[in-house]
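Aim 2, interim progress. The first record below pairs a target sequence with its structure tokens.
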Amino acid sequence: MGYLLHTLAQMKAPRLSLRTAIILPLTLILFAMSALIFVIQSISYQNTLEDISKKELTTLAQTVRTNLGNYLYPSFIISSTLSQSVIHHFQEPISTSADKTSFLFDTYQSIKNQLPQLDTLNIGVDKTGYYYGFRKESDHSLSLLLKDETTNNDLVVFDGNTRDAKELYRVKDYNMHPRPWYAPVAFSRKQMWSEPYINNDEKKEITLSALTPIVDKGQLYGVIAADIKISTFNQLLTKQKSQHNRSIFIFDANQHLVAQSESSDELSIISEDAPKTETNNPLSIEGGRRAIYASTDPVIKAASKAYLSQSVSDEQLFEFSLDNKKHFGYVIPFNDQYGLNWHIAISIPESEVLSKMSSQQNIMNLTIIGSTIFLCLTGFIFLTRVTSPITQTAKAAQKLAKKEWNTQLPVFGQTFETYTLVKSFNEMATNLQVAFTDLHKQLAFDSLTGLYSREGLIESVKNHKRLNGFVFIIGFDSYRNINDTLGYNTGDQLLKAIAETIKTIAPANSFQARVGSSEFALVTLNMESNDKQDLINLIIRTFDKPIRLGMENILLSPVIGTSNINNNALEQALRQASIALSHAKKNHAKETTYSPEIEEYSLKRTQTILQISEGLKGREFVPFYQPLVDLESGKIIGAEALARWLSPSKGLIPPMKFIPIAEETGLIHQIGYQILLQSCQDTQNEIDAGRWPENFHIHVNVAVDQLASEQFISELKYILKKTKLSPNNLMLEVVESNLIDDNPLLLENIKTIRSMNVGIAIDDFGTGYSSLAYLQTIPFDCLKIDRAFIKDLTEKNGHNSIAAAILSLTRDMNIEVVAEGIETAEQAKVLAELKCGQVQGFYYGRPSPLKEWAINFPLK
């Protein structure tokens, strides 16, 4: 069973073609390798991307740091150089305010082209509080900023480089000492940078000053401030961004913005929400600078949050996302000896880095994809050419399996193995074609008679589009006896003669076939119902005449089963005709036409056979016992064991429902064995229990076929030994009508049985054809007069009856005579007068199971 299930599973499992089985794994391997290359390349690409971005950012950061240093430090060089000259020019006794401004103007005018980033160059005198300065305008002209003895303690901004110019702006009571460009250096007495602050002029620009103290003889004389506007910082960073397309911003140690590349507006770094403070606050007028994470620029804001979320270090590379786009960020410190503690931050979008790598990456990807496709196509073409002969061979094999014998055979392959395979297959296919032709002929035609076989008949008739006729199946009752008596060679010759006879009487356009060992089919097409009976009569008349074979005249007994061909269903019509033939044989009829009732009977018979077989397995066949009475004493001296079928589902089934079928099928042997075994066992048990006397006789019916079998004697000996029943207590009954066959083994077994002291009784005596003759040839111990001779027995006809003749005939034979079927007291009385020894019938008791015997027939 396991092997069968495995085979079915194998049959249902999908099958790949050879080409697919070879190409698919190779293709998968190629694609897997390509995918692996893509993965490795992706990892390498990511690492390369990070390396490139780091190099880009590092290089740019160094460039920005260098440029920023070059941008800032010249201011200190100027202020340092100028500080010595200021002491000389400003402390001259004859130096006037005009001389001082003229000196400062000449100095600024000489350097302004070399220092375009310089915005204001101013000097504050500590003792007097005077202020001298020049501011570069947008047209590169210089404007005077002045506080001296002439400005009434105010800071005046002129629209020109002299005091004669128009006054632009005046700061009342200007005090420089707390200003962020003056106070820190006045306190520290060393060069330094100021914090970013807002000028007190009309422009209110954010400024970063390079501060240098003017010290004379250890005393602070004043402060020189070289101012750089924050807006120029932004312009510097914006220029860097335009060159490198990178976002750049600078922030101090408190993470406040100093400058950024995203806007040239210097006020973009101012926080409007910052609280106002004292006047010495660098940004007290407009509020504090924005924190980097509060920048108005989204790139700076996102980069700042990513930077601050990590452990802050002097130099740091990080990543962040903005609008689902990846960016790289880099921060480096910018410190100098003048107190700057800034950081330069640069960010770059991943797309910018990818743009440099995309062309190379695309070329690499296209190369991988192209190579994979090329290898797949090349492998496909090559393997197709290699496997094509094999796949063609497989397709040809499938067609041959479907009996398409004209299939075109495949061409030879180009490799040695495929060439050998295809060549061998072609040779095998050719041999198969020849063998199939021969086999088809053997299957389609009967080798003995030359008629169609059953398969050949069906195949030939199915080519006709319309079938409207009849099927006749002809059988012969006596054919088996002919084989047994005349031999199989004669039987074969007889079959040939029958076939030739059928050919001669068959109508035109009919088909003849041998469909069984001695059964022939005749199929007529387009035959009317009126012609059917004429053909039946012709067949019967023809085969009722003896057939001459050599010196022998053989008389056959034809039996015919017929059916109609409906809806082109020839196979069904053949089956139905066969059912009709079987029915005719069972009923000893010459011809039977199929009907649903016949099929139903056949079906029930088949079901009964199956049920009998199951009943034998379940030991459902049991003996019922009917008493045998000594007529003179009236005592029960024995019993006949009658087979009964106790079905769990149907209850008690009458013997006539199963005995005939069991005899026809041979199952009667097994039923007889079970009844004989159980009867012997019951009898011995009852004798041992004292309920039956020791000379109690048990009569058991045995079929002639069972009695004539080779193994019956051994079975009988086994039963007697197993049950320990004395042979003297057992009487085997054989129906007299079944003894007409002169079977040597039957007579031999009867003699052996009697030699074992087991009695033989002839049952239903008087119903056979040769009863008197068998009284001389068959040894027996008991004769049972059939009930047919008892039922009409009366006192008036008793002495002239057949029963009286039988009793008279057997009186001197020293055998027991039992009269069956006693139903009345009158019959019993007449038999007593005729000196009949034993009787049996309903008058004395009906058959009953053993458990009811003690109740119905008490012996004591």
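The second target in this work package is listed in the same format:
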Amino acid sequence: MSSLLGLTGDLGDAGMTLASVSKTYTDAAQLVVNNGGQQLAYSGAGLALSGRISNAALLPALDSANLAADQLNNMTLDGSISSVAIPGNNPIVSFQVTNKTTGKGIRGLKAFNLVIAQLQPGVNGSPSEWLSYMVTGATSRPSTDSGYTVIDNGDGSYTVKFAKDIKGGTGGTVVYNANLTHRLMVGIRTTPSVVLQQNGTNLSNFYNEKYLISTFVPATPDVAPTEQRDMTTTDACNECHGKIGVTTPHGGRGDVKYCMMCHTAQRANGRTPSTSTASAFIPIVKDASGNVTSASTYVADGEVSGDFVTMIHKIHMGSKLTKTNYNYAGVLFNDIVYPKGVDNCRQCHKGDSTGELALAPQANNWKETPSRKSCGACHDNINFATGANAKVGGVAHLAQADDSACVDCHGVVNGFVKVEDVHASTNATPNNPFVPAGLVNFFYEIASAAVDPLTNDLSITFRIQQNTGSLTAAKTNVVFPLAGFSSGPSFLLAYFQESANQAAATNGADWNNLGVKAAQPITASIPTTITNGTTAPDAQGFYTMVVPSASAFPVGATLRAVGMQGSFTQSAGTGGIAANTSRTALSVVKEVTGDAVRREVIDSNKCGKCHEWFIGHGGSRVAGLGTVGQSICALCHVPNLSSSGRGAQQSLMTFILGNPVTTSLTTVVNFLGTVAAPNFTGSISQGAKNAITALNVSFPGLDPTTFPEASNNFKDMIHGVHAGSNSLVVGSPLRFVRDRTTSGDFEYNFQGVTFVGVLKDCRACHKDIPTSATNPAIDNTKATYVSIPAGVQSSTQVTTSTAATVSTTGVVSDPAITLQTAVGVGNNVTKVNTDRTSLPNAQDLVNSPFTATCKACHSRPSAVAHFKQMGGSVNVPRSQADPAAEACVTCHGTTGPNALFNVHRFSVVAE
């Protein structure tokens, strides 16, 4: 080798270097490959030769045994399968593994996940299905290969021979057929064992798994298979789950194609069938720790719970399933609440464009080739053998012995009950863009908002557009008055104004809506006919509405913004619809010209990945896919807002609890009433009855002075909601009561919420910041979660004008509050109302800005002690809180030893 390089001695001896003969590492690598294929790699002693090499481009290969923790976490794996052969009974696969960033090989890997499956064609209209060769008999279920042989070529390329005999194995349940489509998968990771993380905690590293997949027909390996089954993509799953395999069971399975190769109908092998009675399987039983101990429903009324099609549909249908007590190995389908409309089939099955179909050619099977298996997984109320419908009042279905007739009724071409039509929702969204015939879609836009410096009048230039049918159909401009519709959108006016308890210099970066009860924005209605402004739209459809100073922003307000929210109600008969229907639309926000703009922290389109459209407060405030700019939510959920339950009226709640629905409320005294209207109006609704009945279970006797109170500032609330049930992080899950008077009093306890993404990945919600105007790459040092700018306000946890405390378990103690039982007897109703009107109060209990952000997830006593140690304020009076004392950035800033981006990306999800 040395002589081939032109050296007179041995490479590595004194003076015998590559540079001495004008050679490079690449020259040497190619010579190695061309002359015997030995490995040339750097070691502690310099260059060394060993092993066998096949590809010079992969050199120098990195030895996996020498990977440090940082490399394990940061390295993105890549690779490809170069060949698959089945010359005998055991498949042989050759592949290469590389560092995606450098393109160089990774040698020394010894453990792989190996799977091979066969695609069985469908019959009588039934879908095709994968069947795994990785079973050992009729009672075994699919797994991965073991006992395989690895040939390490030393450059990052490998050849592996399966131990599994897929042709002549005894007791197997899959008959080898070389003419059918096969799929072979190789799973790789940076390490096959437990590794040491940056924070010193042992954790199996599954973040950087890579799956190499080859789909082929053994008889004609050079011809692309004509029979395929790719209906979704991993990227579609990860829109909500962040990274499957990390956020889903059996850590490390990070490719949906892999899931399908094990979750086949063979999951029923060796399992005892379960039969429901009156649409219920055997009751769920749990031990003291909450672990499910009752028998699993592996095969439930003939459906294989672990089959991918059945399992995924049932998981996402979740709480809307008709049958109850599903229990697939401890996964309780009925307990799962899907965070968006389950009729959004396109969320998983994206096939509207050529590019999408290239990734998932069968993505449109959901509407083109319906079957009992896929449809029945969600619609478990239908007994296809008999046609019986288990839903109360449900229409019977025609009995179906097979799937051959499904397309006749539900097909795209001639079906009279097309799948897409019956899955259409009343809101046209990107993943469900069609609405039922006759419904009108609305679109809001604010072109500008301006305040006259002399009069303080507010001018808002806006337009509303409409279309029918599809979200993308041509739009026309709305002209007022709009016949056939009632109610309609309105404007929210948010702002900051200085007060004695919130100086502009230290609090001016957030809205505080001073002077309005509960720090809520001012509402300005859009009249049916605009008289103050332009009475007709301009050529582009824009109106200008003038809000007079008395109803607009206070004089001297800053950070002013206008939000457009609310919805029209389409009247029955309009467009041929049968009943009045709310027409929800995305809300929009626009800053006042010339004012500083309130920072955008979250990206509403990221919210939309899980929620599609988040529709809050009865459809008034909507954000999600399609939102441009600031979220409407932040205008109301400001730092000065806390929950209202402690001001509820016990006498009203007990009256609703003790009387039937529709009972008049006009005999119940309203402690906040007037001389002219001393009592409540209306009658008991079913919603109010349900809410107070549930509240009485948590708080027997319905004493509002015992109700928990919590910040409803957007960041505190949303972090707390998503932290939910994560017991490793959350010491005391977010819990509070909201008083809605005659509409009911509602307990919000988010302990049951399970975040389906990577909880510690702040990027899942926060806005990405590009490196520069010309470089779109994300700059993590500029991300909206790594710092808090000057002027951010402390978050109000308890609203009060008198001395109060909060226990470590969240119980509020305010000696000045007593239960109000009549007008002038007790004061919880009147005092809480007064305190919420005089916000911000000097005695309000607050958390300082950094602390409020982190404590919403990290609320264990040890974490709270840490916040305080580093200058944070936790439940202290506003007058004593000192945001400037927080020293969080010292360690967690972008240049700190525990920078937030690194800690949240790499550390175990704990304190």
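The CA atoms of residues 230 and 361 lie 6 Å apart. This observation will shape the mutagenesis plan for the next reporting period.
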